Amino acid sequence: LANESRPCPCDIGDRFDYGGRGQEVQVEHIKAYVCKPPASTDKAVIVIHDIFGWQLPNTRCMADMLATNGYIAICPDFFAGRKAWKPSDDWSKFNDGLRTRDAGKINKEADTVLKYLKEQCGAKKLGVVGFCWGGIAVRHLMMTYPKLKTGVSLYGLRKDSDDITNLLNPMFFIFAEKDDFILLHQVTLLEQKLKKNCKVDFEVKTYPGKTHGFVHGRREDINPQDKPYIEEGKKDMINWLNKYI
């Protein structure tokens, strides 16, 4: 996350007025939003929220979209009860708050969710997608859990791009060309590292003219010029998941 004065950009987008099609459940020590497709399936996708938490309507809309495409979609509270960020919060304290929400320290929650998907949902083929903070979390999980057959990271990149070449399974990275918080040279460096060292399939795609959060944070009726790219991002995400799950 590159901008020092605004350490996280997820408040750029507009919040959907959206109630969701799924339901909230208690999964051991955390809560989660779950949406299932009409037909029975053993395919599931974990949806990892941004800093605004698991109840953000925009993220639940993405989970519902995955369900309409045939996946059990679960968006757990990876903050495990800790308060989600609000746009009105004091941004000068953001980095302190982020230290208690480390995207690389979510294994307990991931274990809980994977157990639930297996035992309660009958899921056998698993993937993961995440947005911003969640996109960084996806990268961590894809280097940790071989049972996750693929991952999609949407605008998730640390300022000092850490080594992610030890991916266990294929991964798709979505970025925005006009992202003031993830700069193009960082994306280029990431792709260079992957090309040099990564041993699994990957793709890095930058969408022209778009800004951070465009896939799940913008409303087409307010920003009609975004609509084709929003739809393209969703289609690309689904196509990648379909390819590997």
UniProtKB/TrEMBL annotation:
It is found in: Cytoplasm, Cytosol. Coiled coil: none annotated. InterPro entries: AB_hydrolase_fold, CMBL, Dienelactn_hydro. Residues 30-244 form the Dienelactone hydrolase domain. Gene3D superfamilies: alpha/beta hydrolase. One of its GO terms (cellular component) is cytosol. Keywords: Cytoplasm. The keyword Cytoplasm applies. One of its GO terms (molecular function) is hydrolase activity. The keyword Cytoplasm applies. SUPFAM superfamilies: alpha/beta-Hydrolases. PANTHER family: CARBOXYMETHYLENEBUTENOLIDASE HOMOLOG. Belongs to the dienelactone hydrolase family. This is Carboxymethylenebutenolidase homolog. It comes from Pelecanoides urinatrix.
